[in-house]
Amino acid sequence: MEPVPLYAYLEKARERLFGWVLPLSLEQYTRSFPFGLGSIRATLLHMASAEFAYAHRIVGEPVPPPQERPFTEDRLPDPASLWKAWRDQAEKTRRVLADIQDWSRSIEYKTQTEGGKVVTVRTTAGGIAAQLVCHEVHHRAQVMAMLKHMGIKAENLDYSFLMFEREVEG
C-alpha cells in the first residue's frame, strides 16, 4: 500500500474525529484520564507534533525540540486552534509524502530519550511513513475511548468504512 492514500485515510478519519472534539468544552477537552497521554488535548497535540517531526525526518531536516514545535498547549489551547494548525501541517505532510520517490531510501537520525541519552535511529522513508500512520491510529483510538467515557458515540473510523466504495442494495 502506498503511503499517500494511507495519509488521505488519516485525514478523513481526523476530520470525523474533530467533528466530535470541536464541540467539547475546554473542561471536557482537558479532562484527565488514566490512560493515553492523560487528556484529549495532550493526546491530539502529541499526534500533531509527531507528524510535524516525521515530516521533517523523512526529508532529512532537523527536528526542533518539542517545546519549539508549533504544537504546544500554550500555542494551541483549544480544539479549534489545533484543528486549524493541523490542517496547515497536513498540507505540508501531503506534499512531503507525494514527493518521495524511493520509499526504501535509508534514513538515519538522532533523538534523545527523556533521560537525555542520545539514540541513533535507522529506518527508511517507508518506515517513517508507516510509523506516521500507525502512530496516529494508535493514539486516535485512545482519544475515541476518552470520548466514549464522556458519552460521545465515537465510532466507524475504520479504513474500509471511510475509503471503500459502497452501494446499498434494495
Uncertain regions spanning at least 5 consecutive residues = none
Domain tally = 1
Strand order of the largest sheet: 1-2
Q: Give the biggest beta sheet.
A: 2 strands, antiparallel
Structure notes:
- Helices cover about 55% and strands about 10% of the residues.
- Strands 1-2 form a two-stranded antiparallel sheet.
- By secondary structure, the protein is mostly helical.
- Helix 1 packs parallel to helix 5 (about 125-150), helix 3 (about 40-60) packs parallel to helix 4 (about 80-100) and helix 3 packs antiparallel against helix 5 (about 125-150).
- The two termini are about 35 Å apart.
- It has helices spanning about 5-20, 25-30, 40-60, 80-100, 125-150, 160-165; strands spanning about 105-110, 120-125.
- It has one domain (about 5-165): Four Helix Bundle (Hemerythrin (Met), subunit A), CATH 1.20.120.
- The longest helix is centred in the C-terminal third of the chain and has 25 residues, at about 125-150.
- The model has no long low-confidence stretch (mean pLDDT about 95).
